[in-house]
Amino acid sequence: MTHTTELTVRQRVDDWLASFEAALRARDVPAAAALFATDCYWRDLVAFTWNITTVEGRDGVADLLIATLDGTDPSGFEVTEEPSEAGGVIEAWIRFETAAGRGSGLLRLKAEGAWTLLTTLRELKGHEEAQGDRRPQGVEHELTEGRQSWKERREQEAAALGREEQPYVVVIGGGQGGIALGARLRQLGVPAVVIDRNARPGDQWRGRYKSLCLHDPVWYDHLPYLPFPANWPVFAPKDKIGDWLEMYTKVMEVPYWSSSSVRSATFDRTSKRWSVIVDRDGGTVELTPAHVVFATGMSGKPNYPQLPGQDVFRGDQQHSSGHPGPEAYAGKRVVVVGSNNSAFDISGALWEHGADVTMVQRSSTHIVKSATLMDIGLGDLYSERAVAGGVTTDKADMIFASIPYRIMHEFQIPLYEQMAERDAEFYARLEKAGFRHDWGADGSGLFMKYLRRGSGYYIDVGAADLVADGRVKLAHGQVDHLTEDAVVLEDGTELPADLVVYATGYGSMNGWVADLVDAPTAEKVGKVWGLGSDTPKDPGPWEGEQRNMWKPTQQENLWFHGGNLHQSRHYSLYLALQLKARYEGLPTPVYRLQESHHTS
User: Fold this and answer.
1) pTM higher than 0.85
2) Where is this region: Disordered (predicted)?
């Protein structure tokens, strides 16, 4: 078998792009679709669809083009660096233009045609961010009477917000997601305000148990515009992250209302505006934005179980989100209900402080050792090794985004097989101790569990050894009831307790919509998060994308933003561009509006 030369690889890509553009220019949809392999996937982030969506097969490609081609009017397809080939697949970084903006993407070609295509909108024509040659001067080099300083202009702007000037966007939730989106909107010139009930940006992190650190590495966690410094810890402690978010909010001039709570939000179908009632500074403020974004993470309200006997239990009871830390529980008997990330972190910290800890495992959990995950799972994209190889954070984000969710598990399974082999002795010890371990519904491990259900896993930073060695005791089953001084399981097992920590997860984000808007709107929007993979806690039908995240929903002018730091960074761009386009009055016809299949 002869190897394809570099020239041939480049020529194949150039020929495909030229043929694709010619077919699009001629509005010849069948010809364009025929350039794709029979088994193919096109993932579009806003560029063609004003949505975040994936189509599959040539029929899917044709359907997308029939609906979007005239309005998009794409052109200028070209490679941005030399393509590469491995295993019969050519990868090529591309750029292109549409009527509204400029985009970039990643094309994978097989002999039959395009296998995967990622297209992303990166900026809007005429509404580019003020970067590089367009950056602001920062000062007016002309003396005039009454000239205001930069600080004075910012103070005047802050004083007018919500009074003389109304925001176009209200972002509910001021964690990393809301802050990242607020920074994007600020740079795009979209009037917005981020609202959070905490006293300072970053308090969402400061208020958690003191041992909490990020489980994801620094290269995965940068925020837009301001990457962490080169000497930032690989796994940042929670208080360090809190301070960074506070600094970031100030430096990026994100309009941010702290110590403020949204009481209600009502949408007027006639005016197409929201009425958002905010408790602030001892009074009430009404904001009337066009758009409301729920940026409350990837989860809804804490799942605090209602159990018989909770009213008679004499000890403390806490959801993991409200656990203050281990200091007050030295020598105490603690039952932690749950066996995922928070359960392990809290159990480990309590054990370190001399508590007698029992973990109640209700269902199987996937565990992967942190060092192994960093090397095998993330090392090629988010690591010092990746940076040295020219894989920037933006490039890594694009590579990850270019793998369609339908086949992502096929990429993940071999990685987790390697992890299982490397840490076989660890898993043998864990399972010998009675811990119920799994590798996901199809062996695809942590990332697919995260994307499908957002739960069911633990990135081990040491606490799993405590369970394997019996230093943290293990019990199995559902909690039946509490007594004055014990947790009783369904099989009758009694676990003496002075503290019960419910590490029982969170509901869907539309629970916040039910609270702040109303139940019918929450039902109309439907469940948030998940792919429709028909695996545990991710019911079908197949969605192809994260339900309701970063894209238009069934409720007009209502959006959701969040996820981990990687998603908050990457997808904040596409959500901000969608909001900017609407702010500027650009046509934004949405292809394949998110359907609601699950309402609770």
Assistant:
1) yes
2) 127-152
